[in-house]
């Protein structure tokens, strides 16, 4: 069963890659939200990135069920003063399609969100920084999968100066002095 499914996927993808001009026109996935996140020097914060998959299409999740499918992956370029931490992907939906009705694929459809953890170093200067990356995905419709695409992604992080800890009062004597 798995061999048949893998062969069907490879044949389907091979035919489509050979005829790329018949694929979708324009990007199938668009970024629809990247709020400016304010972060204090040295403290972590999560940046939620919202994406939308065009109607009639789906993309493989970050953990597709078959090794033959290309996962959706967000790669964020490292900066010198802002550390990029864990990227958190949503769970995909298990769906079956006409090309393999007995198999469930794990996919994203409609809107979905990927969270990126950022942590500016204590030494980073306050201000607004642009973080860039790429979302790599493979789009499919109900009958075919298309060659992988790369969607440029960027978002802003506003860095605020860390507040200095207030000076502690000196220790007071518990004894009254006259």
Shape category? elongated
- Percent range for helical residues? under 10%
Rg, rounded, reads 24 Å
Strand content: over 45%
Q: Residue ranges: pLDDT <50 for 5 or more in a row?
A: 3-20
Question: Which architecture does the CATH hierarchy give at level 2?
Answer: Sandwich
CATH superfamily: Thiol:disulfide interchange protein DsbD, N-terminal domain
N- and C-termini, Cα separation:
93 Å
What fold name goes in the CATH topology slot?
Immunoglobulin-like
| Nearest-integer average pLDDT | 84
At the first level of CATH, the class is Mainly Beta
Beta strand count: 12
Please give the count of helices: 1
* Tally of distinct domains: 1
- Structural class of the helix and strand makeup? mainly beta
Arrangement of strands in the largest sheet: 1-3-9-6
Explain this structure to me?
- By secondary structure, the chain is mainly β.
- The protein has a single domain, classed as Immunoglobulin-like (Sandwich).
- The chain contains one helix and twelve strands; from the N terminus they run αββββββββββββ.
- Strands 1-3-9-6 form a four-stranded antiparallel beta sheet, with no helix packed on it.
- Strand 7 and strand 8 form a beta hairpin.
- It starts with a helix and ends in an 18-residue tail after the last strand.
- Residues 3-20 have low confidence and may be disordered.
Task: Write the SSE topology.
Elements: H1 2-18, E1 29-33, E2 37-40, E3 45-53, E4 58-60, E5 73-76, E6 82-88, E7 93-97, E8 100-108, E9 111-120, E10 127-137, E11 139-140, E12 149-160
Parallel strand pairs: 2-12
Antiparallel strand pairs: 1-3, 3-9, 4-8, 4-11, 5-10, 6-9, 7-8, 10-12
